[in-house]
Amino acid sequence: MSLPLYYYLSITAVNILMSWTLYLPYRVAQLHFITVANMAISGYTAGYLVMALHVPFGLSLALGFLLGGLIGYVVSLFIGDAPTFAVVMVGFTFIYITRTVIENTPAVGGTMGMFGLPNIGGSPSFHRSAIIAILYGLVILVGFIIHRFDHSSLGRAASAVFADKDLAFSLGVDIRKLGMLLQTFSCTVAGGTGVLYGFIYKSFHLDFYTFQLVGIAMTIIFVGGYTTMWGTVVAAPVLYGVPLLFPPAIAAWRIVIYGALLMLVMIVKPEGFITRRTVFHVEAFLSRSRTKLNNSYP
Amino acid sequence: MQALIAQIINGLSLGSIYVLLVTGFNLLLLVAMIIHFAYPQVVVFSMYITWVVLLLTGNNILLGVLAAIGSSVLFNLLSAPLFQKVMKNRGEVDINSTMVLSLAMGMIITDVLSHSFNHGLPITFPEQLSGNSPVLRIGLITILRGQVWSLAVGVMAVSGFFLLLYKTRAGRAFRAIAEDPNGARLVGIPLLKTGLESYALTGVLGGIIALLLVALLGSASPGLGEQVANKVLAVSIIAGLGNLPGGLVVGLLLGILEAVAQGYISGSWSNVIAFVVMLVVILMKPSGLFGSKL
């Protein structure tokens, strides 16, 4: 696998996972940016375990998931049913505090970052294949879980909370518990994604976990469509891939393009390009095609 | 003791800028009903425009001052229809959508500044505008011209703003909309016009803040907006969203706390203080110390 293709595939998978970690809490109208801080915390912790204590990668990855989930759970005890603005600010605060702690901790490289992480399994080509396999395995697993969630009574409860919190409460939805569940799950996924993100480049640096990352994830969700998980699946490869085709002079303005696109979508098409209606039409079309295909065989 | 006094003076001048920023932020929140995350980025944008005008006019201070205020007002007025359109799309006041829109604005401003001005390197302002020269020195205590300016102008601007808000007809209209938009409409207050006035007024405040930051810091960088934005939001949340007197108290206290911490804690740890306080407040008392006005 060529290096550009490896980076394209792996970063696309990371973008999908990262955007899903924001998509899920947003189902109950919470923009939970703490997931970005969790990526950094779990990533650096796993990097330290592998580099300094020679803990196997698999175990470090598992601990990354666990640490992310634990932080998510503890925080969700306080902000499980908090309003959007408060959740956003907790996320920003965590990002800022995490960055400062890492910046001032020499054991994880401080401002210089952590370099020279070992390959998984030996050769560089095996490392790349393994990272891609783990990432897309995770995408399929998390995608399946979100799909099941969206089609469950919990998913409908989340939609009710998004539409009208008071109405959902009067219908018997436990808003706090639902928020806690979604926040904890998102943070767990973010923890593991953070570890894999660093192992893609075999290094960890503070520049990986900036507010720009929040902006990219938000663009993917809101441009793709925040009402369904499929918006992220479509938007992530397109938004990351298209700027790569631009000449370098234009590609350097990637964040401006993302910002402008995000503003345009918020004004013109607030629900994003892939809506529930779009998914419904696609499912109906596929269903008709399947029926036709079945009928054509005697 | 002298070091502590020096840090408190430093903190007061820093705090006065926080107060101005949080006042503008809260006014937009209460009257225009938007969460303008990018308001501090607009302020930094004005600093950059001032720098360009100074460069082009051979350091003409008057034109620099006009550029700071003019660019901030213009940016705010131009962004007003975008916020209104987003709210109209939803058919209601939608603070979340305006928050996302302003986050996108912030992304654009920061990236444009890092690409288009001075090759992304920090900019420095001429001696006439930046206030790095000392006006008083007693032992360890050194009071810089920029500190005096920011404190004096900050106090005057905040006093003027509060006078306008509590002693004038326009101020009553602002407060009426903040209390009850529908009631304000019923008694004949034009919501759109008053909303636009709030954008213009916060634009003027933004320009003044830009000039005070120039005087206090003497330089600016593309990332300054994000740093300041986080602090302003921290002040707003600790005080209670939309609480103007609360913002005044917390802004000053936070400035002092941060400056004192800078004197005694090494590295960038002092920057975290505001966020640790904010985190504790959000987790323990989500409506803020003085209560939210939303």
What this model shows, in words?
With 298 residues, chain A is an all-alpha fold. Chain A has two domains: 1-209, no CATH class; 210-298, no CATH class. Helix content of chain A is 77%, strand content 1%. Chain A contains 13 helices and two strands; from the N terminus they run ααααβααααβααααα. Chain A has helices spanning 3-26, 34-53, 57-79, 84-103, 124-150, 153-163, 165-170, 175-201, 211-224, 229-245, 248-251, 254-268, 276-296; strands spanning 114-115, 203-204. In chain A, strands 1-2 form a two-stranded antiparallel sheet. In chain A, helix 1 (3-26) packs antiparallel against helix 10 and helix 2 crosses helix 8 (175-201). The longest helix of chain A is centred in the middle third of the chain and has 27 residues, at 124-150. The N and C termini of chain A lie far apart (44 Å). The relative contact order of chain A is 0.16. The model of chain A has no long low-confidence stretch (mean pLDDT 90). Chain B has 294 residues and is mostly helical. Chain B has a domain at 20-222. Chain B has a two-stranded antiparallel sheet with strand order 1-4. Chain B has a two-stranded antiparallel ribbon with strand order 2-3. In chain B, a hairpin with a 2-residue loop joins strand 2 (134-138) and strand 3. In chain B, helix 2 runs parallel beside helix 4 (95-116), helix 2 packs across helix 8 (191-217) and helix 3 packs across helix 8 (191-217). Chain B is globular. Classes of the chains: A mainly alpha (298), B mainly alpha (294). Chain A binds chain B through residues 29, 31, 78-79, 82-86, 88-90, 92-94, 96-97, 100-101, 103-104, 211-212, 214-215, 218-219, 222, 252-253, 255-256, 258-260, 262-263, 266-267, 270, and chain B through 35, 82, 85-86, 89-90, 95-97, 99-101, 103-105, 107-108, 110-112, 115, 226, 230, 233-234, 237, 241, 267-269, 271-272, 275-276, 278-279, 282-284, 286.
